[in-house]
Records
---
Amino acid sequence: METATSNDYILNSTLEIKPTPITVAYGDGIGPDLMRATLRILDAAGARIAVNEIEIGEKVYLKGFSSGIAPEAWESLRKTKVFLKSPITTPQGGGFKSLNVTIRKTLGLFANVRPCITYYPYVHSNHPEMDVVIIRENEEDLYAGIEHRQTDEVYQCLKLVSRPGCERIVRYAFEYARAYKRKKVTCMTKDNIMKFTDGLFHKVFDEIGAEYPEIEKEHWIIDIGMAKAATRPEVFDVIVTPNLYGDILSDVTAEIAGSVGLAPSANIGEHCAMFEAIHGSAPDIAGKDIANPSSLILAAVMMLVHIGQSEIAMKIHNAWLKTIEDGVHTADIFTLDQSTSKVGTQFFADAVIQRLGLIPTRLKPIHYGTPPDLTAALARPVRRSFEKKELVGMDVFVHWNGNTEQLADKLQASSVPGLKLVMITNRGVKVWPQGLSETFCTDHWRCRFMGDSAPVPHSTLISLLQNLSTAEIDFIKTENLCTFNGVPGYSLGQGQ
Ligand code: NAD
């Protein structure tokens, strides 16, 4: 390694190829050990990279940066556009935001790509044929981070899903499948319940999927889909799914493949990309030199393909496979029948380095040709023309400790000409008119007012809120009810 400053150095500076600048963070817990092991392998394999090191994680949080990253680190990320990141520790307690979520959203890393493959029989798994890639939407859904406490008893988290967001991730999944010659893309949502948000994701999947006739397509409801992935993962190929489901699903599939310590992930955006292990900083084994560095090594392999150093990626990946099939295993994947030695983090890295140039004889060797062109997958979705939007009513959410009839009477007495109270629900269940006495009610009520005719002027809604305020009704939030080209843009029912 040639050192320019303590934070900058070039791997393989004697080679004539221009080095690709990358940003590196050593992270917390087992992070520094994994990164040292990984960079030693990259160096030995001849990766040509110019490293700019930044500090992120626990120490930065405790310095007072609520997202765990200092302003100057963003400069490095914006300059290099490629980030190799070790896991970090998020300090306990309130006030700390997830660094990963912040980086993904700030840099627009919309696609989270997580390959989960078994290395049977060398790594124990009940699923010898498993080879699935989870493509998780990375920016939206419940991860918008918009949460509120609204009443004594009720808290909410907003699930935001956009059409451009769905289009981008679904197209990425199909382009990925095409580029890597995968046969099937499975979409998983819960659109039988969340008909607008997950319904949009499924609809966009059907629309965009039609442009890829050579690829088989299917949709599973996430609960049974995830159960199937946990028991018969070999029936899946590429899975595309919204953020939260993808987060859980990819940990499940990584674990049943053998260990979370084997699973890498790439976070891809239009301008930047971040490569990391899927697991955390494992404080329980930090400093013991026993963590499996494979997830970060394989993340670095994905990074090398991304920056066009496929030859080096292939060399490292095949050496890693050879190490695994030779039975040189860290504690998390060690078994008496398949392992030949139980090794620590750095010894494992040495074993990979010793095998650079070799290919596995029993596991399938890897071949990375010309990097696949995923430009179409990264293009910005085309904005659609606006639909005719009409305001037809308003849901008023109210903090109320009395009973349903008293609330309905008070609301009706406060109404304004042109608006009528039509329904009250509690946690999504209709309680007025004609509710059931068996329904348990909290202190959080949704009160639906509909206009006599459309469109309802905003001023009418403001008058209603003015009256509610005068009647000392504690409204905590309102939601406008609109139609789009005549189609209601709000759920009609009373929850399922
Ligand atoms: P974790 O993934 O760190 O650990 C879960 C279990 O898996 C532990 O028993 C651990 O020992 C084991 N494990 C993880 N990686 C391993 C490896 N490479 N080799 C062998 N065993 C391994 O999850 P956690 O304990 O819930 O979280 C610890 C910290 O990590 C928390 O502060 C959390 O916020 C953070 N975290 C960070 C990231 C990230 O930086 N991307 C992701 C998840 C969690």
Note: DSSP finds 14 helices and 22 strands in the chain.
---
Amino acid sequence: MSNHHGSEHQGRRAVGQVKEVTSLANPLVKDIKALALKKFRDQQNAFMAEGLKLVIDALDLGWEIRTLVFAKAGRGNAAVEKVAARTVAAGGTVLEVSEKVLSAITRRDNPQMVVGVFTQRLVPLKDIRAKDGDVWVALDRVRDPGNLGTVLRTVDAVGAKGVILVGDTTDPFSVETVRATMGSIFAVPVAKATPEAFLSWRKGFPGLVAGTHLKGAVDYRSVDFSGRPVLLLMGNEQQGLPDDLAASCDRLLRIPQQGRADSLNLAVATGVMLFEIRRGALKLETTHR
Ligand code: SAM
């Protein structure tokens, strides 16, 4: 293969083709660094996941890897070489980079040893058909990547089916969101919808549409969620649910509070709701330590 990148050379290893990169000016590195911005993530239809665990999770769950970047320190590490081999087998590119390049890509001083670049994947809203026992979460205009990531992780942990992002939301594929999911971004289906598309899809939802609202008339603990599909609708961090979305709910539920806080954090409220909705489905742990 010819050398496209100046002084950098490409070598062949047992694991397949590995390109060594030490220059920040390398075009492959520039493309990956650009993934920090939504504009370029959308242009490339790609995103970054940091850390060996996340990359392995993604590969195990069938996500398409485009590039695997690993630090020189990973050379000879059996787990790193294995994901490198899987990347090559999947038709991806493997880059061995200097610490400096990896820090620039991740914008961190002590970056993870491995970064994967994956193709984005969303579920079309029209393909979501809920069955009895299924729980879906819809988030109205979620703004904070930490909240979105935490909700995705919690949805995964309780065995809910997925998340629908309604309206203008933070990007599920941003570095911050992906970090906060701790890998659940690869396990939880995500759909996006305009409020209009969501409202029309909601009309065909075969179960209970439960909204949460600070002025909700119903205590969330008084509802029987079992035996039917449930769509849990959560409001925006600053404004809560707008009137049209609130009006589309079968019930508006309230989590009772004491003290001075006027509301719960969105991800915390989602967690409380999900564990209540899934209470019967989650096995009772009988082991005491
Ligand atoms: N200022 C906003 C308001 O007036 O609704 C606060 C929004 S709160 C931070 C974000 C979302 O979390 C709410 O829209 C609601 O879905 C949910 N939430 C938070 N605390 C809640 C509670 N005590 N009962 C029901 N839902 C709650």
Note: The first strand starts at residue 10 and ends at 13.
